[in-house]
TrEMBL record:
<dbReference type="InterPro" id="IPR027417">
    <property type="entry name" value="P-loop_NTPase"/>
</dbReference>
<feature type="domain" description="Sulfotransferase">
    <location>
        <begin position="71"/>
        <end position="331"/>
    </location>
</feature>
<comment type="similarity">
    <text>Belongs to the sulfotransferase 1 family.</text>
</comment>
<dbReference type="InterPro" id="IPR000863">
    <property type="entry name" value="Sulfotransferase_dom"/>
</dbReference>
<keyword id="KW-0808">Transferase</keyword>
<feature type="compositionally biased region" description="Polar residues">
    <location>
        <begin position="1"/>
        <end position="11"/>
    </location>
</feature>
<protein>
    <recommendedName>
        <fullName>Sulfotransferase</fullName>
        <ecNumber>2.8.2.-</ecNumber>
    </recommendedName>
</protein>
<feature type="region of interest" description="Disordered">
    <location>
        <begin position="1"/>
        <end position="24"/>
    </location>
</feature>
<dbReference type="GO" id="GO:0008146">
    <property type="term" value="F:sulfotransferase activity"/>
</dbReference>
<feature type="compositionally biased region" description="Basic and acidic residues">
    <location>
        <begin position="12"/>
        <end position="24"/>
    </location>
</feature>
<dbReference type="Pfam" id="PF00685">
    <property type="entry name" value="Sulfotransfer_1"/>
</dbReference>
Length: 346
């Protein structure tokens, strides 16, 4: 039994005591903990089988207790740094394409993170019972919370989930780099070093990790119920964005018409949501998101295979072994290099 499994057993014993009947702080303090990546002065707690950063655990509990999904909701799920910003922009542009042309699209003046807020990082962080009255259907909302720990009503209603996954090598590097960016939070401690972060990632103790259980929760549900969960991969979107946009629009019940295809609307939206275009829009160049994070820190490189600049061959071997062991038999595979993700040349 590895460390994560034994913690899972310990934590599930604790979770059987209903957190609602206890003081939340006391409940949180009773959970297993490790140092948080971004702020080594604070912790991540092991809840429902996942490591949740201290400052998001209260919001996760409120989300699970209070959120009532509607059948028309669209929920975007990602492990952190898997391309969330890109997915938010794409889905927002696709579902609103009949309401405004791209030059009038609100994405020109507001961040994808403002237009498609996170449950735990925005809405339930601000209030235990956020006001959803300003959202008109379909409500588009996002989360890093794993499938296994979502609010029950997301699983029981007919709302749809789009999950975007990224190869663990680039995900790790993007996550580690992001966690070393100085934020304007005066309480921030020392950020974590590369080796220590990598070791924790491989053991499963990364924010919202283990990454493999995060991926597998949505992956298995997408196989079991493809009308409920659409599972996309970052590298495939880089390779064939048009194909994935068509799948996305069909899944969301707003397929592109022949007329739209002829007019090149799919290409227009993909260009608009491309890394280079989004990065250069005003709301993504300046200001802060989620209180402390520079908006431009969500646009670092946007490449497949940048991990080779950070990980040694032995780290590569180790992560490959973790993936082999944890994703074995699941059918979930990744393209972790630019060559693999590039379209084949004729
Ligand atoms: P989040 O999960 O914290 O919201 P997320 O958007 O997933 O963040 O992470 C940012 C990553 O997506 C960055 O990857 P990198 O560190 O490897 O560069 C960022 O560059 C990438 N990204 C942001 N926008 C796009 C886009 N339009 N196309 C492709 N990649 C993008």
């Amino acid at each position: 039994m590895d460390n994560t499994e034994s913690l899972q057993i310990q934590a599930s014993r604790k979770e059987k005591q209903d957190p609602e009947n206890q003081d939340t702080e006391k409940f949180i303090e009773s959970l297993p903990k490790v140092k948080a990546w971004q702020n080594m002065n604070r912790n991540m707690y092991f809840y429902q089988g996942f490591w949740i950063p201290q400052w998001y655990l209260g919001p996760v509990l409120s989300f699970r207790e209070h959120f009532q999904a509607c059948d028309t909701d669209i929920i975007l799920g990602t492990y952190p740094k898997s391309g969330t910003t890109w997915l938010k922009a794409l889905v927002y542009a696709v579902i609103n394409r009949k309401s405004f042309n791209l030059d009038k699209n609100p994405l020109n003046s507001a961040s994808p993170h403002t237009l498609v807020p996170f449950f735990e990082l925005n809405l339930y962080l601000q209030s235990k019972t956020p006001d959803f009255s300003s959202f008109s259907p379909p409500r588009c909302l996002a989360t890093h919370v794993p499938y296994q720990a979502l609010a029950e009503s997301i699983r029981t209603t007919s709302c749809r989930i789009v999950y975007l996954c990224r190869n663990p090598f680039d995900t790790f590097v993007s996550l580690w780099k992001f966690n070393t960016i100085p934020t304007s939070n005066p309480k921030d401690g020392e950020p974590i070093g590369l080796e220590e972060a990598f070791d924790m990632f491989c053991h499963g103790s990364s924010p919202f990790g283990p990454f493999w259980d995060h991926f597998l929760g949505f992956w298995k549900e997408s196989l079991r119920n493809p009308n409920k969960v659409l599972f996309l991969k970052y590298e495939d979107m880089k390779r064939d964005i048009k194909g994935d946009m068509k799948r996305l629009a069909e899944f969301l019940g707003c397929p592109f018409s022949e007329e739209e295809e002829k007019e090149g609307i799919i290409e227009e939206i993909s260009r608009f949501c491309s890394f280079d275009n989004l990065r250069d829009l005003q709301p993504n160049k300046s200001g802060k998101l989620m209180k402390y994070y520079p908006a431009n820190s969500f646009f670092r490189k946007g490449e497949v295979g940048d991990w080779v600049n950070y990980l040694t061959p032995s780290m590569e071997d180790r992560l490959n072994k973790v993936m082999e062991e944890k994703l074995e038999d699941s059918g979930l595979t990744f393209k972790a290099s630019l060559q693999e993700a590039e379209p084949a040349s004729c």
